[in-house]
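Progress note, sequence design subtask.
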């Protein structure tokens, strides 16, 4: 009886130790994954700035998922990467001399869960509608939902602009 109790206690203590180390390792993995995701999201933020400043047509599409949705005040939702591309082309045709002078988004409260990330943002931008037009300012606010891609990168899945 005494031997059985000692074996039971040893197995129990060993189980606690294994559980503790497994949980500790899992926490380290989760922290590493979260840090990796944050770094990849920061690369998306940088890419957004890099393609917005020169108004790179291909780059402005590549930052979106295939099924992305863009909501802008006073306009119907633009659904899908091809529709976003067509909407961008329409804007370029309407303002062929459009030039972004500065673009400074500030991202807030990034939340990551199950391959999706959510953030709200504020953006200060200066632009000219044409070479002759005076510079104008824009202060935008909104919400972005991003989706992790199979290669670990992130793209915008939903963009909701408030202003």
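Output:
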């Amino acid at each position: 009886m005494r031997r059985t109790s000692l074996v039971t206690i040893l197995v129990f203590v060993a189980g606690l130790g294994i559980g503790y180390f497994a949980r500790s390792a899992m926490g380290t993995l989760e922290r590493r994954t979260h840090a990796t995701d944050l770094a990849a999201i920061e690369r998306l933020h940088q890419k957004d700035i890099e393609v917005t400043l020169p108004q790179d047509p291909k780059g402005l599409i590549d930052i979106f998922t295939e099924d992305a949705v863009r909501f802008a005040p006073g306009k119907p939702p633009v659904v899908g990467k091809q529709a976003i591309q067509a909407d961008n082309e329409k804007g370029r045709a309407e303002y062929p001399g459009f030039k972004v002078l500065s673009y400074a988004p500030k991202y807030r409260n990034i939340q990551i869960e199950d391959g999706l990330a959510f953030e709200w943002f504020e953006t200060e931008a200066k632009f000219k509608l044409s070479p002759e037009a005076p510079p104008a300012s824009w202060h935008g606010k909104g919400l972005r939902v991003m989706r992790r891609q199979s290669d670990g990168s992130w793209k915008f899945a939903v963009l909701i602009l408030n202003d």
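The two ends are 76 Å apart (CA to CA). Work on this subtask will continue into the next period as scheduled.
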